[in-house]
Amino acid sequence: MAESTRPMRRQDIRRENEKAILLAAEKVFAEAGFGGATMQLIADLAGLPKANLHYYFATKEELYRSVVQNIFEIWLQAANCFDAARGPIDGISAYIDAKMEISRRHPDGSKVWASEVMHGAPVLQDYMESTLREWTDGRVEIIRRWIEEGKMDPVDPRHLLYMLWATTQHYADFGHQIETLNGGKALSDRQWREAKENIKRVILTGIGALPA
Fold first, then answer.
1. How far is the C-alpha of 186 from the C-alpha of 41, rounded, in Å?
2. Domain that holds residue 52
3. Burial of 200 per CB tally in 10 Å (0-12, 13-18, 19+)
4. 31 and 79 part of one domain
């Protein structure tokens, strides 16, 4: 019995350590950028020896890629609602809800992604040209189908996606600005709910999915 439980304990420890490292790396990369971040800073914030950090991630670039891919994978999961939705009201509403929750709970990951893209994606261009492009093309086809079915106005699907990304990720990337304009306080649960409802109403009405 002891031998059968020992590997599971090691897996649990590894999972917890990797989670702590990724969360610490998100924060350090968001605040210092790729160039200013160091493995020592990340190890200190994660509460682990630097040698342990290198055991899980051999280089800073490997860890950086993992941070950005992790936030992108979370975004991908949020978009699963597109595939099963009957139309834009269901699909886009659920997508906005999910993306707003990600901005609330993973603001640093979103900031790292934004910084990478604004600098020309020096580390992740290959990822953008493969995974991101394939994902975007798939969502474009779904939106086109909704248009053909008469469930929304004939808008350009790509510009609609760009608008959704810009709006929802604004709450992460410009969180400090939002807090400043909110009297120096983080948005409350009620304010997050109101933000989601306002975004959904504006977007869905704008694309003709809801009556004006």
1. 26
2. 10-58
3. buried
4. no
